[in-house]
Design brief:
With 330 residues, the chain is α/β, with parallel strands linked by helices. It has 8 helices and 14 strands.
Amino acid sequence: MSDAVASADVVLAAQKIAAGEVIGLPTETVYGLAADAQNPQAVARIFALKHRPTSHPLIIHIAAGADVHYWLDEARMTADMTDIMNALIDAFWPGPLTLVLPKSPAINDVVTGGQHTIALRCPDHALAQSVLRVLSQLRNTPHVGIAAPSANRFGRVSPTHAQHVREEFNDQVWVLDGDASVIGIESTIIDLTRGTPVLLRHGHITPDDIFDVTGLQPLPNDAHAPRASGTLLAHYAPATPVVWSSSADSVLADAGCLCFSNEFDATPFKQVIQLENQPKGYARGLYHALRELDRAAHAQIVVEDLPADSAWDAVRDRLKRAIVGSNEGK
């Protein structure tokens, strides 16, 4: 796209959001189903389009340099919470890190699934940032946010290309085309509401990255944590049943395969997609590969077992949930 066309598309995207519409928005992680976070009717349309439970909170995307405190309940922000938040923002925003914090009473509960916490992220994508800037101009306020869960039906495979969103929603959703998402899986989610980092969802930014910045190793998710996106047992799932290679007693006659190593025996499979043999490259291609294999309508998708080291935890998390979701009711 030329700069002129991109600029016109960005303005159109912001106009649609300002008018209460829901659009497909590119980010560096995945494409989002985006609406004005402060328009309850528009946010409700996101839930309806995705068939998403209204108790499942959304992530709000804000502009680089925006006043994060506008969204927060300062009365419930401790000094430790603020210090850790500022350190993580300085280190990772814009970027694929979502922070869960106490919500300002002024923010409508519809976007937070009825919780008194709010999930905030600053996307590292030029078009998403441009849309936020234009939206701020249209609404004549610096305090704008875009609610943008992944642009797919609830529980299904997230989109990393504009065409994925169009396939998912046809003409129900206008899509701003920002090329392929460069990270390919959703953001890391860190809960700070208890004054120490708690890992709610694995992502591109690892627990070790959080430790390097804060000196604190994130605690694991537990029953006391706020609800957060992408943390259900079944998620990210194609319609085709997915299994680990170690769990496949025998390969079905019409099976697809997702692998990463040259040593893996791909002989029995009708279709094979080989991703990069390192976790971030693998993550970048994961959802596109799952969609390709799902589109082929194989009887089964067999996934090569991943290495055990923690660098693969984010990819492992997505595939575990995809396996559960794809086999439900089968």
